Amino acid sequence: MAVSAALPMPVAAAPRRPVNKWLVTLSVTFGTLMGAIDSSIVNVALPQIRGAVGATVQEITWASTGFVIATVMVMPLTGFLGRLFGQKRVYLACLVLFVAGSFLCGLAWNLPTLVLFRFLQGLGAGALQPTEQAILRQTFPPKEQGTAMAVFAMAVMVGPAIGPTLGGYIVDNWHWSWIFFINVPVGILGFFMVVRFVHEDEDLRAAAQAEAARQRKHMDWAGIILLCVGLAALQYLLEEGQSHDWFDSALITGCTLLAVTCLIAFVIRELTAVAPAVNLRLFKDPVFASGTMLNSVVFAVLMASMFLLPLFMQELLGFTATQSGLALMPRTLVMLAMMPLAGRMYGRVPARVMVVAGIVLAGLGAYQMGGFSLDTGARNIISAIALQGVGFSLLFVPLSATALSNVPRERMADATGLNSLLRQIGGSVGLAIFATMLTRHTVEAKAAIAAHLTPERVEVAARVAMMQKGLMARGLDVVSAKAASLQMLAGSVSRQAAVLAFDRLFVLAAALFVVVLPLVYFLKAAPSGGAPQEKPHIDVEI
């Protein structure tokens, strides 16, 4: 007689609810794209907003600083909040907060209310990026992780690129408040789509509930407070350090000491806490650590070039804001076209090969910019930034996918929160460093050029005499023509010094890509291209 018995085995996880991955993708991308656009769209409208709320040039920068500070405070806590309240609930709550903050920003009547509402908007935006990345990683099968990260990359990297152009169009044709009001209908649509199409897996929910009980029993208030204070101080000094002359300011010095102290204490706390709010042990994985670091450097260079190029075109080449925006559009269009292709390549082409190719192309694009001069035209700019667009696409997609390839599904929200945080901080560090170096290099270059412009040099005397004769031919007297010619020479020196400073920074950006090349050695995705899979439950009959 045949005997059939089932060996005692763990209870199998409930089958996943069938989902349409593209509807899920569209649903969660709305929030991420709006948050990414809002990180840069406000900058072009600051003059109009400043007049409306009665703020000075220095004060109005808080509209951007407050948003970024709030964003970085929430990002690393995404996994912690998701376990306590549910990943879908956290996303919906943050989307509601972002949309409400956007609506209130459009109604702001003075500077304090604008800063407060932008801070609320930033708190909502902070969890949208890492939550979308985690949802996409958990929704797409392992072999399609490249496609998932390509969609995510388009929202994260293209959003800041189109923000200034979109903001300029809205400000030129409507009231500045519409840069905020436009988020309301899009956000409402995204909310109902997430409610309808996004569902949490039962196995992930069960694992989260077990961890949440442990977190509630050992609530890590100290770690949360240290993290928020440390990141707020760090982001403030990065955003405002340049305008306060860095460490010549007691406020910036104090923020630096506060940031260093709190963040060191935070790391110690998280490594010793029973139930840490942020899982820093994820950095023990060299793939996650190297991928996240490379991601930060790429984003730093991207944000720095987005800051430098418009300045170069408008201040030195005489481009209008519209012309400079149009000149930058090819990079955005190239990235939109290339990222889906890069997503399809991931899994078929080794991640290291794609990353190295991206580093080389992005570095070559930056190196080409290092040869810009006052005679540079739009064609030269477009060729360089288009090359960079291809490079950034080949970089960001495999980095986003590979960095998370060894992370278990139940830890995905923790990993994406840290990944998004370091990418955001990398962008802020890049902006702060390059803005400071631009000012200093310009002063140094101007002094170096001026040292060679002595009256004893024949070339200098001939140039001044030629300009003086030309001005006298236009009706100026001898004394006025001489003074005006010297002023023209000084202006020419300033422009040439600025060109040298810009070129030096573009070459530095290219060198940064070479410096991070050794980190590519540690990139090695899981064979399936996705997170490690759980061992299947097996029923055995005898």
Give a structural overview.
The structure is a single chain. This protein has 542 residues and is mostly helical. The protein has 3 domains: 17-210, MFS general substrate transporter like domains (Growth Hormone, Chain: A, Up-down Bundle), CATH 1.20.1250.20; 221-272; 282-531, MFS general substrate transporter like domains (Growth Hormone, Chain: A, Up-down Bundle), CATH 1.20.1250.20. It is built from 20 helices and no strands. It has helices at 21-41, 46-53, 57-60, 62-74, 78-85, 87-107, 111-139, 145-173, 178-181, 183-197, 202-217, 221-240, 250-272, 286-316, 321-345, 351-369, 378-403, 412-450, 458-473, 478-515. It starts with 20 loop residues before the first helix and ends in a 27-residue tail after the last helix. Residues 1-15 and 526-542 have low confidence and may be disordered.
Concise synopsis of the structure shown:
The chain is mostly helical and 542 residues long.
Q: Mean pLDDT, nearest integer? A: 77
Largest sheet: none
The Cα radius of gyration reads 26 Å
- The CATH superfamily of the largest domain bears the name MFS general substrate transporter like domains
Determine the CATH topology of the largest domain. Answer: Growth Hormone, Chain: A
- Unreliable stretches covering 5 or more consecutive residues: 1-15, 526-542
